[in-house]
Design a protein that fits this description.
This protein is α+β, with helices and mostly antiparallel strands. The protein has helices at 70-94, 103-115, 122-139, 155-171, 177-196; strands spanning 6-8, 22-26, 42-46, 54-56.
Length: 201
Amino acid sequence: MAGNVEEWCRDRLDVNDIHGRYHRIRGGSWFDSTEDIRISRRSQHPVDDGIATLGFRCVLPSTEQKSTKVATDMASWLHDEMQNQFDSARYSVSESFIAHADFDTKLDEIVLNNTGYPRTFERELISVLQEVNAERMASDHSSKNIPFEASSVNRDMILRMWRLYLEIHFEHGDKSVFEKLGLFKESVRENINAITMQNGR
């Protein structure tokens, strides 16, 4: 992989760059000397700037299994796209590039553009999560889980639910939204601990 273009990596070089404005660059390109094309060479580059000597690094984390399902891969990719776009929107608000009043409108656009569904559809996803959690509590009286209020469901949880729903949406394109929500409910039952974990960890 070394020698054609520098490799833009997903992780940040500077851990203090909380907004992810700069990402790690590995190796060198056709423009560099032999010494500089080593993979061990590190630098960083702004995420919103492209140059002719920069590409990206294709890797699969060792903790994940490679998917053979197009629906799963599509849903995963859209999840990451939405996460990045939400983070960018938050950063724009924090830097006053866009007004706080426009933030919800921006989120509406991100959801519609990436999913094809209006953002109000998230209420259906949250409702399913609340139903599944209520079932879990009813079946386990010793459970310390508390009911989910819509206001307590954070953006990370919603994005994880979108990922599950979109996988079903792509895999079962011939089914109605009602049928897809039924399949989504089954998926939430199987993955509720992963959905409700804090900060995605």
